[in-house]
Amino acid sequence: MRGRVLVLVAVLCVAALVLPLGAASAAAPAKATGPIVKVGVMLPIQATIANPDAGDAFKASISAFNNRKGIGKKHNRMQGIVCDTRGDANGEVSCARQLADAGVVATVGDLSFNNPAGVVDILQAAQIPRIGLIPTNVSEFSSTVSFPVSAGPIAAYIAIAVGLNKVHKTTMSLVRTDAPTGATFKGFIQPQFKKAGVDIVGDVAIASGSTDYTPYVRQAQENGANSVLMSVAEQSGTQFIAALAQLNTKLQLGGAPGTFSLETLRKFKNVTKGTLLADSFPYPSQNNVKNFPGLKQFFADMKASGKKNLQPANIKPAALQIWMSMLAFVKVTANLDSITKETVLQALKTEQDLGLNVLVPPWTPSAPGFSLFKSSSNHTAYLMEFDGKNVVTEKKPIDIEQFFPAS
Predict the structure, then answer these.
(1) Other CB atoms within 10 A of residue 9 CB
(2) What are 152-204's pLDDT values in tens digits?
(3) Would you give the DSSP letter of residue 319?
(4) Residue 393's beta-bridge partner residues?
(5) pLDDT above 80 (res 12)
(6) 2-151+292-376: what CATH class?
(7) Is 200 helix (H, G, I), strand (E, B) or coil?
(8) What region, left, alpha or beta, does residue 311 occupy, with left being phi > 0 and alpha being psi -120 to 50 degrees?
(9) Which of 205, 229, 330, 383 is surrounded by the most beta carbons within 10 Å?
């Protein structure tokens, strides 16, 4: 049951948020000259729930790091292999086999949510490390070849609960997609929300294809709720907010960045100002660069690709997750003479306190996790707020470990 809930949460967090931002100029590159090393990623690129830009972000990241001497002591050149799962259970397993057969030394930033256990079976058997994946199932957290850079969407939602408590909006309705696994989601997160001081008093399931969101807004207000956690894709989030504005209803909003487009937040700022967002990485916008200078290199790398969808006015936050995963791969292989799946896996088990541009705490891939986060060494999420114009990220992240039992 816990695994199915995680799958639902990850699916709902796939949608990405369009950002207007500036970018730094890239330094003069010194290109990699060493032997080619294959690196793979599996993503839902052409699917109902997808991130069509993630493949381009993966290729842009590889190009950028190859232009900075590549990876390892011999400056190996990375060759990226992108496999589109199409968000399909068979497609995910097919991609895992394709990447294994291609001889990749690792997968970087991949996402599987329809058949994650099947993907684990293949990559675990092949002993191919997965760096910076978005875990959607208990099997991925417990796999010995899985090395997330963050605790993912569950951590983000708990950070939202902390934020709701701070603004004294502690009676909350969960607003979620009506899916078979959704009915258990409330019970799954309730203990952690309770510990953060938030009581979940409502559970609103939005049916696929709904056009009238007025009943959902009214349902969210029942039982005295003064806030909502929105666990829906961007389209549903936009319609819910439009209904809020039409009814002139004041509810404190919270959710992952992919639920809210910046355009929608600004259009309906009378009801969206103060909206709380949370993610594993700082919100990648120009107004956050001062507190997070490490974003500058990310902006420059994406802009240098020349891709329209990765330019400052169009870039999406999911691209940062891909880039951060690639940064983690580059860091963990820095001291390797030979780069194979075996040497990469060994490095992941031995390297400690790797700096990731100060965008997350220092990363020790092999650090033991806790509760269901058995392979996640970083347990933090950044809380953010829409101020009426921009999304501002708090500089200090929230450690979610405190909201789980000690044993």
Answers:
(1) 24
(2) 888 899 999 999 999 999 999 999 988 766 788 899 899 999 999 999 999 99
(3) H
(4) 384
(5) no
(6) alpha beta
(7) strand
(8) beta
(9) 229
- Over range 81-86, report the average pLDDT: 95
Percent of the chain with pLDDT over 70: 91
Q: Give the max Cα distance, the chain.
A: 64
| Dist. CA 308–CA 249, nearest whole Å | 37
- For the residues 372-392, what does the mean pLDDT come to? 88
DSSP label at 235? H
Tell me, what amino acid is at 155?
A
Q: In what helix (H) or strand (E) does residue 194 lie, and over which residues does it extend?
A: helix 185-195
The span from the CA of 188 to the CA of 157, in Å, is 12
The pair of structure tokens assigned to 257 is 């960045």
- Could you report the per-residue pLDDT of 261-309, keeping only the tens digit for each? 888 999 999 999 999 999 999 988 888 999 999 999 999 999 999 999 8
Domain boundaries, the chain: 2-151+292-376, 153-279+385-403
From first CA to last CA, the distance across the chain in angstroms is 20
Averaged pLDDT, 17-39: 59
CB proximity list for 76: less than 8 A, separation 6 or greater = 32, 34, 35, 36, 37, 70, 339
| 128 residue type, one letter | I
Q: Which amino acid is at 319?
A: A
pLDDT for residue 46: 82
**18 close to 262: Cβ distance less than 8 angstroms:** yes
pTM: 0.87
Triad 39, 40, 46: Cα angle to 5°: 150
- State in words which class domain 153-279+385-403 has: alpha beta
Cα dist from 385 to 19, 47, 118, 192, 257, whole Å: 15, 30, 38, 21, 10
Question: Residue 12's Cα: distance from chain center in Å?
Answer: 11
Angle, CA 398 vertex, CA 396 and CA 404 arms, to 5°: 160
d(CA 65, CA 80): 12
Task: Check if 2-151+292-376 and 153-279+385-403 are the same fold.
Answer: yes
CA proximity to 199, closest of 167, 161, 166: 161
**In the beta sheet, which residues pair with residue 39?**
80, 106
Quote the tokens at residue 207. Answer: 């049916």
Distances (CA, A) of 253 to 258, 259, 278: 14, 11, 12
Cα(92)–Cα(27) distance, integer angstroms: 37
Q: CA-to-CA distance for 227 and 200, rounded, in angstroms?
A: 9
Q: Which two tokens stand for residue 103?
A: 């001889």
* Radius of gyration, CA atoms only, the chain: 20
pLDDT at 14 over 60: no
